[in-house]
TrEMBL record:
Organism domain of life: Bacteria
Signal peptide range in chain numbering: 1-26
Keyword terms: Signal
Protein name: S1 family peptidase
Coiled coil: none
Source taxonomy: Bacteria, Bacillati, Actinomycetota, Actinomycetes, Kitasatosporales
Length: 346
């Protein structure tokens, strides 16, 4: 399956016993959109809201036949050569074209989609295959995130690696994810670390060397973003919901940060909320200063800084700089008025 929320929809003809009574993982920070599977009593399927949709998207018989042949070839290729390459294939009803998502090399794609020697209509349908170079997987993690995007995930553009911070919304309700302003230039297209998904484009970049302001933040928008933060290790798929956002408190000794390089690390003590840090991109202040625990590292920039309890994550900002003993954080109390946003909760 593609890396997106996975919802199991059951269509059960006869009444069965309940298959699972376990709570949905997503509610407790597990799978991204996994739902509990339950049997249901027999229903008249013609009453379903999507029942009549099939007749509205007819496909040509040639396209269907060509797709079936290509899919059979793909299955045979995978059976013979293994799973080094991934393939996703289907018929786009809007264009009547076969779509092939794959990371296989061009010569393999050409071999699998060449229907020469068959009927002319099949050759024509195969000649219109839309090949999209991408990797498909049935898993996700913070280094291979999927929509809706969470905080603490790996992102990249132009060879630079950073992390997502947290989802926000402007006055119109449009959602963005926040990261560090020193990560990417305005207008950059940002993808997941794996490159499989576009996370969005950069806007509202604020940085001393760019805007002259003593802050380090930017917004990434154009896709879907949720109020959840990755927890656990660097390949974790667990998360917690965002509860709220506000100021940090000096002396609190169990703040956490979440990013693609060090994962989730807690046990940080806030030593100041009025600090200053000056790096290659200028001086930023006021910033949160913390010590203790595993300090953030390169690639964690933009990652979430928060306190957490049984309710979830309480956002305090996003990480922007560090040395071997000390971390520096752009405070939420500066981000909110600068970008004119509110926090998105989970």
């Amino acid at each position: 399956m593609p890396k997106m929320k996975r919802t199991v929809v059951g269509a059960v003809v006869v009444a069965l016993t309940v298959l699972s009574a376990a709570p949905a993982q997503s509610a407790s920070g597990g799978g991204k959109g996994n739902e509990t599977v339950r049997a249901i009593a027999a229903q008249d399927n013609t009453a379903a809201p999507d029942w009549a949709a099939e007749d509205k998207v007819p496909a040509s018989s040639a396209s269907r036949a060509a797709l079936a042949m290509i899919q059979e070839r793909i299955a045979g290729y995978v059976a013979s050569h293994g799973t080094a390459h991934t393939f996703g294939s289907y018929l786009d009803p809007a264009t009547d074209r076969i779509v092939l998502d794959t990371d296989a090399p061009a010569n393999v794609v050409a071999m699998l989609t060449d229907l020469s020697g068959t009927e002319s209509a099949l050759v024509q349908a195969a000649g219109k295959v839309q090949v999209r170079p991408r990797t498909t997987t049935d898993a996700f993690n913070r280094r291979d995130d999927s929509p809706p995007f969470w905080g603490g995930a790996g992102i990249q553009s132009g060879g630079a690696l950073c992390s997502t911070g947290y989802a926000v919304a402007n006055g119109s309700g449009t959602r963005f994810t926040v990261t560090a302003g020193h990560c990417f230039s305005t207008g950059s297209t940002v993808t997941t670390e794996s490159g499989a998904y576009t996370v969005g484009s950069v806007s509202n970049r604020h940085l001393p060397t760019v805007t002259g302001e003593p802050v380090d933040m930017e917004a990434i928008g154009g896709q879907s973003y949720a109020g959840r933060i990755y927890t656990g290790g660097v390949y974790s798929s667990t998360s917690i919901p965002v509860v709220a956002a506000g100021t940090a408190y000096v002396g609190y000794s169990d703040y956490c940060h979440s990013g693609r390089t060090t994962g989730e690390q807690c046990g940080h003590t806030a030593t100041s909320i009025n600090g200053q840090v000056c790096t290659q991109t200028g001086c930023k202040s006021p910033v949160i200063v913390y010590t203790g625990g595993v300090i953030q590292q390169g690639g964690d920039s933009g990652g979430t800084f928060y306190a957490k309890n049984a309710s979830g994550a309480w956002i305090r900002g996003h990480v922007i700089a560090s040395n071997s003993t000390t971390g520096y954080v752009e405070p939420w109390t500066v981000v909110a008025p600068t970008l004119g946003v509110s926090i998105v909760t989970g």
